[in-house]
Amino acid sequence: MAFCEACKLNSVALLERIWNGSHPETSPSPADLGPGNGPKWSRRHYLRTDKHYNRFQFQGAIVEAAKHQELEKAMEMVQWLYDHFHGCIVPFGAVSAAASHGHLEILKFFKKHEISGKLGDDRDEIEAEWGNVVRWGRRDMEAAAENNHFDIFWWLHKHAPAPRYLNNVMKSALRDGNLLMLDWIQAHYLARRDGSQNNVGSQDDAGIGDTAESLLSERRFFMADAIIGGQLVALEWLLDNGYDAGDNHCNWVILAALQTNLLDILDWLIETKVVEAGRILNVAAEEGRLDVAKDFYACYWHKICAQHDYPLEPQELWRPTRSSAMAVRHVQLCS
Fold first, then answer.
1. Where is the signal peptide (predicted)?
2. Tens digit of pLDDT at every position of the chain (335 positions)
3. Residue 255 shares a structural domain with residue 214
């Protein structure tokens, strides 16, 4: 049985049995006995003789150990693995698993007994001292934020700088209406409203791998994410901090509101001039939402017609398509 399977069964005793049965002197190898002689050779015997197989088994086991819901049991298995495996690599998945389950003590244990290693280099350079290399970063902070373990989120940011992905952290904060997290991302990561960037968002300072530009490239989805979560406070935060959808991506916002049926948010978008009523009417008509189209036609059509400059500049962005024009005509006939 593999070590990771034993960890799934939540049994340190089983780990001990596998380990004790892997001693190279328990039985000679087929090479020593000759063909056809002796008992069947088990790959378990590579556990102590082959460092690559040793590290492979450790990586699978440490991930399973970190996944356990019960911290005390998870910690017991992690400590057992550290007592028996040295100079191995704790993979990204184990760190993310501990973060997602709220196991801060395990993360602190990883940090305390961390040894140096070079990512991407030959792994033979890891010295077999007590402790293991830990791969921090990638989606560990994201896993903590998505599961509301913000104490772990802050701890990782402060104590384990590494390249990370924060796009989904931003998405989760918007959908949950977490203004504290949004303020943190704004302070440490996003570009300021004046166009200058926060130096804390650089990889050298904070260890965050994504750039401000990579996160801002997703800004067209910011308002849509807040709408999907039904978070008006997040929408107000975005507007106050200058992160509106922009003329090119207003349809994303409208579609999100239509799909979630949050029509009061559509009214808010019109009142705050994020989206024009005419565009909402067009998109609703194109999407076959006759109920929405009729409501907005009754409330806003006279105002739309009173605008001498409608459609607004640029013409290509605001002109109704043939399908939407036909749909609006259908709304007029049904009203």
1. none
2. 777 888 888 888 999 988 887 776 555 655 566 666 655 556 777 788 788 888 999 999 999 999 999 999 999 999 999 999 998 999 999 999 999 999 999 999 999 999 886 654 445 556 656 789 999 998 999 899 888 898 999 999 999 988 888 888 888 889 999 998 899 888 877 644 444 444 333 333 333 445 455 566 667 788 999 999 999 999 999 989 888 777 667 888 999 999 898 888 988 998 898 888 888 888 888 888 888 888 888 887 766 666 554 544 333 334 444 454 555 555 555 55
3. no
Q: Which domain holds residue 222?
A: 165-247
Domain match, 92 and 221 both: no
- Residues 135, 48 share a domain: yes
Pair 86, 155 in one domain: yes
**Total domains in the fold of the chain:** 3
* 8 Å CB contact between 57 and 34: no
Only one residue has tokens 């005390």, namely: 72
Contacts 24+ apart (CB under 8 A), 106-114: 106/66, 106/71, 106/74, 106/75, 106/78, 107/152, 107/155, 107/156, 107/160, 108/155, 109/75, 109/78, 109/79, 109/82, 110/134, 111/159, 111/160, 113/82
Three-state DSSP class for residue 134: strand
Q: Are residues 253 and 309 in the same domain?
A: yes
In the beta sheet, which residues pair with residue 138? Answer: 164
Asked if 22 and 101 sit in the same domain, the reply is yes
